[in-house]
Write the structure tokens for this entry.
Amino acid sequence: MSDNQLAAAVDKRRTFAIISHPDAGKTTITEQLLLFGGVVREAGTVKARKSGNFAKSDWMEIEQKRGISVTSSVMQFDYQGKRINILDTPGHEDFSEDTYRTLMAVDSAVMVIDSAKGIEPQTKKLFQICKMRGIPIFTFMNKLDRDGREPLDLIAELEDVLGIEGYPMNWPIGMGKELKGLYDRYHHRVALYRKDAEGRQYLPLNDDGDLAVASDLADDGLYTEARDSMEMIEEAGNPFDADKIASGDQTPVFFGSALANFGVQTFLETYLEYAPKPAEHKTADGDREIQPTDPEFSGFVFKIQANMNPNHRDRIAFVRICSGEFDRGMDVIQERTGKKLRLSNVTEFMADTRENVETAVAGDIIGLYDTGNFQIGDAIYTGKPAVKFEKLPQFTPELFVRVSAKNVMKQKSFHKGINQLVQEGAVQLYTAYTTGDYILGAVGQLQFEVFQFRMQNEYNSEVIMEPMGKKTARWINPDQLDERMSSSRNLLVKDSQGNPLFLFENRFAERWFQDKYPDVELTAKL
Ligand code: GDP
């Protein structure tokens, strides 16, 4: 590929994740987007990934059948000349650090909100990661075909709860059974929910923002209400600001119904106008920026998905390509080890098949079959100098368990398993100061269950896990640490790098500690 071809290919890439709280409609909207992309799938491919009752056994079974969850982790399709990569972020019970890390590999995010519920906890958590990265966020207020909250309320909530300005691109005309359409100020038209008697789907607006054609809608109170709201927002609301959108300080808001496929296509098309192409990536020492159009290849591992089937020990390391072009069979250097690796067994992701990838460029995701060589955060590259990216952030766990080997004679496999799974980023490991007990931390319960299952299946090590419940983890400056600060309400532990931290019973315990030791600095790592 010539430099120009590479630049043109990179220019077409749009890589994003959809974030939402369970049941807001992420699966439904994803399926719609895939349909627009003309991706032919078995019915319910995306659906199979989630199930209302996502018990551990279901998940294991899905994993064992392989394919389904992996292929739906990354979905790729072409639309209007763009190559779109959607990365799945499970917002469900399998919510884990993987979900957070996936957001490190995207250039923008789509936030789906149930318009009857507004901003829910999982959305908020995922939003905060996007905010930290400063990536553009586009909002889809879903389920307009149902009675929901006041649109104005929903917009205000974005600012109040998330601290991001909302810029409504369109405005609902009615809601629920009364839904008539969308007043679309951005496209200067009204999109009708149901075609009118003349078979029209769209009615143009004139420069004053009034209907430019004769329609019964002009006399409809719901229409005038929407029109007035939009006018008021035009005058008093936040002005459209492309820079703020780019930095994640303003979010364009679209209303619609994923289920009724209303407003989704407009959303997709407008989104593609503003969604950024692949961005540059900073190197660890901060003195270089890797441009996506750099001819040398580079990328990093943001997720490792292990096969739960003990007969096939392979895992897939998901790599976000940051620069250059991937070619089948190419040799790369793994930065951490300095080893040369040949990338021959690689997969790209279509919605229903795992196709062998021939070429992929910056912005794309490739899956490397891995026999245990890779760790989360690993960089791979070609050429010189070596490429080391900024460290992926570690996420503060909220749930903890004490873990031990059931059979004390099998300490060796127990330690081996724990070390490997911790390296892989499956869970985080802490050691209690006084007792030396092993404590695992996670952001989602499923991480523990997978850990336990894999210890048994892959390392033949049966583990006992004693739930400790939710804790507030706070790191302390080692110079300020006095082991006597540990009490019954906090547990002093070390993280895997040996840094001390307290696991507080709750916020109250933390406050009590702070009152007692006002000079001690406690930090919550994100
Ligand atoms: P996810 O958990 O965010 O992936 O949500 P789903 O896409 O599975 O949707 C959750 C439920 O809401 C399902 O029963 C969907 O059929 C329903 N749903 C999704 N979008 C809409 C919508 O626009 N209107 C209505 N009425 N229901 C919707």
Observations:
- Residues 20, 22-28, 50, 142-143, 145-146, 257-260 surround guanosine-5'-diphosphate (CB under 6 Å).
